[in-house]
Amino acid sequence: MDIATELVELGIDADASPRRIAEYSYDASNYRIPPVAVTFPRSAQDVAAIVRTCRRAGIPIVARGGGTSMAGNAIGRGVVIDLSRHMNRFISVDAETATAVAGSGIVLTTLAAEARKATDGRLTFAPDPSSASRATLGGAIGNDACGNHSVRYGRTSDHVVEVHLVTSDGLLLTATRDSLYATDPDDRAAAARAAEIADALKDLAAENLAVLRTELETIPRQVSGYHLAHLLPENGFDVARALVGSEGTCAIVVSAKVRLVPVATSQLLLCVGYRSPSDAARDVPAILPFAPSAIEGIDEKIVATMAARRGRDTVAGLPEGQAWLFIDVDSESAQAQGESDVPATAKRLLDHLRAQGRMIDATVVDDPARRKALWRVREDGAGLSSRLADPDDENAGSGYESWPGWEDAAVAPERLADYLDEFAGLLEHHGLTGVMYGHFGAGCMHVRITFDLRTPEGRAVMERFCSDAAELVVRHGGSLSGEHGDGRARSSLLPIMYSPAMMGAFARFKEIWDPAGALNPGSIVDPPSITADLALADVPQRTWPTAFALGRPHREAAPETTLGSGAGDTTSSATPPGADSGGGSELPLLDPFVHAVQGCIGVGRCRADTTGVMCPSYRATRDEKDSTRGRARVLQDMVRTAPSVDEGWRSPEVSEALELCLSCKACSTDCPTGVDMATYKSEFFHHHYRRRVRPLSHYSLGWMPAWLSAAGAAAPLINRALSSGLGRLAARAGGLDPRRTMPAFATRRARRTHLDALPEVSADSQVILFVDSFTKAFRPHVASAAAEVLGATGDRVGCTADNCCGLTWISTGQLGKAERTLRRTAENLDDGTDRPIVLPEPSCAAALAKDLPELVATDAAHRVAARVHSFASYLPTLLDAGWRPPALPDSVTLQTHCHEYAVFGARSGVAALERLGVEVHAAEGCCGVAGNFGFEKGHYEVSMAVAENALAPALRDDPRRPVVTDGFSCAMAVEHLAAVDDDLAGTRDVRGVHLAELLTRATADNPTPKNPTPPSRSARS
What we know:
Elements: H1 3-9, E1 14-15, H2 18-23, E2 37-39, H3 44-57, E3 61-64, E4 79-82, E5 90-94, E6 99-103, H4 108-118, E7 123-124, H5 137-143, H6 150-153, E8 160-166, E9 172-175, E10 180-182, H7 188-207, H8 209-215, H9 239-243, E11 252-259, E12 261-262, E13 268-274, H10 277-282, H11 284-287, E14 294-299, H12 300-310, E15 323-329, H13 331-336, H14 342-356, E16 361-365, H15 368-379, H16 381-384, H17 416-429, E17 434-439, E18 444-449, H18 456-475, H19 487-490, H20 494-497, H21 500-513, H22 592-597, H23 616-621, H24 628-641, H25 645-649, H26 652-658, H27 667-670, H28 677-688, H29 696-700, H30 704-713, H31 715-722, H32 725-733, H33 748-756, E19 767-770, H34 773-778, H35 780-790, E20 797-800, H36 807-811, H37 815-829, E21 837-839, H38 842-855, H39 859-867, E22 868-870, H40 871-880, E23 891-894, H41 898-904, H42 908-915, E24 919-922, H43 940-947, H44 951-957, E25 963-964, H45 968-980, E26 992-993, H46 995-998
Parallel strand pairs: 2-4, 3-4, 19-20, 19-21, 21-22, 23-24, 23-25, 25-26
Antiparallel strand pairs: 1-2, 5-6, 6-11, 7-12, 8-9, 8-11, 9-10, 13-15, 13-16, 14-15, 14-17, 17-18
């Protein structure tokens, strides 16, 4: 009996499927190690049962939280215990003692938010690493995570009061600041084991007093190794803090009591520009006396990539410079200066920095929303720096890759600048480059480096560089790790930092807790080489033909691939174009599809639910398989393990992983590395179903543009049929869910009324209105409203309703038909002018702006794509010309279409409405319908769960507010929720209106027929 089956028989959720194994073979590090099974315990007792079962079978155990480890300490060859899925409760809070108890799987931002909620906004949990929106408490304890505000609040170890453990023999213990005892006093075995461990730990401390006092806790961010100094008599035999930073190698933390801190007040963000990160670092000692809560640094490449990924407005407010410090000051900073005026403190700090002579410019940000937006630039540093881009240069960063490995070294803050100067020389010596960011105020530097992890030569360079870098940081009195832990990335380098006596104490500490070495083997003690088990090593060198360009520069021929030396005929030794091998030899190009799917580096922003839209399916199911990261990892294993390219495209594991992808495109902008899962899904299905029968919905919905005209001619008949029992039969026959509200076709009269009078495109037209298939068939009144608005400034509007964007063929992976359709459209629209092309349907606009140039490799396609605007993104042009609409409502609910969000900007509709004085209540998330997704059989429950993330609560908040839904699928989501949601019953007839309708007097007059098939309210289930 295999271990997964044995655990399932014990009532534990365990999975050893190839797809699940692929998802958990990676974390956010450079490594890949397939586990034998993955488990999802619901209680400490479940964890204990898993440990006991694995112990009997001699199988190692790896505890895992959010899977965001950059050091490789959340993967391993045994059974992975995912504590994030179920063991994530906020258990209790004690405001008087300023403490809280929570499960180890709770996300850090959730813990902080729950603490604030439970204490009326007075207390919070302080550690805030950049991954806090998906990293868990257990992971923070495992690594001794710090965060952006660690210059004031220190490390996680400073906030741990007690930890509740499962030992390597399956016993439940509690470690406190001065003791270790059985969690259940009546558990004699646990009590005996606690006493045994405590005695051994006291002996360990007594035998190593000198090295514990001289080699540990020498700088604020000394995280490498075990924190044994806490066992010293003068530190009170603090077992809880000694376990923090042990990376799951000694015991499994199932919950913890943590200290809370007062919420900061009157916060101001100072953005200070410099010529280099080194200049910025030299000013840190001058800043620290002002008691800021944060001193963080980034360089210009990260800022440029953020602007390219999410728009220039995301970095608006940064002063001139090539590197920046983000400095938070607040009321506590002012009090440290003996004053209460925070702006005055900020001014004195900036005056002081000017006197140092290094800063170029500075801005003070007091708006909370703007402050939050700028902090996101720093928080996404790891992802942004891995795949660079520049809004002013489409070839910037082409093929650029940088990786962790030496991304976490720390020195004393006063030595940071000198360390960085020498570090830059070391990079140059090894032929490498790096993008720098990090916790300047604490002396901790994050650097992602252009290691070539694909070739033996490149891996040898990495090994030499990391060894030299370890020697360098030790010369500066620093630590190999400042918060990420040692893991597989640095553990083998620990003897460079520590004496043999200290290494012996580390080994003894591990042995006391885990005599069999079963917990997370390979971290800290007895580690493998830093180049073992690299995810990019030994990937077969093959060509994966694609319809999409996938990052290839315009008109570039598909790259030829050749084999590197020493890798054999089936392994990849390629580097992307522009990457430096570090060895100086010429290397072949990497297959574009492989390079694209390997863009996911595991930082896990797709598992966050506090900002952005990505990833709606994960937010609905909370299952790793439904995250962008999970899907990318399965694709990465496909290109690695498939026997052939053809068999790879047939992968059932990838097909299953992509099943609940909504193709919302949000990941293409929200993912810091620019992973575009909608494109990868379309590409995969294009090959997967080649010469095979497709799902029925690929015909009924995928070929919708081909049959819409005929259906429109018989609209009354079809609408009547859909309102009868035939509607449900027709839905089932088309592979659709009969519970979903079906759209009503516009009558011939409605189409004539709204479309026939629209002027055709002529030489005199100044703006082209592209009337898409959805608008023409279901919402022709939107076309006439859009034409009215576009012509309101006096511009002559010409309308075309004879072209197609190919969207439905793209979303169902029928790329041959999509390419032919788009090629014809590009030829028709490429008229030798730069006249703007405006589409009322944002998904169709996105298809022309993004998919067209990636599928059709012609100059015409690129010229047309550059002229395309969504209606919302074009509206500022009209406002800039002085146009203002008639009376508008005071407030609206806005559901931004995901494709609008991804391609034209997250704030396109919000910004325009706010300029017009309208209060916008944005439903920040996917509507759940997402084109064909919400209509398809098997997707209904997830679709409705996705709507609960943002849209449904926004509608319930005030059903009387107009609901702006430029996207047709968003409008259908609103219509369906209005029909089935009991909380919306009895209110006015809730429906979505297009922004163009809102801006014209025709808003209240919609001749489109009502939904022909109103579902019962029980259809929610």
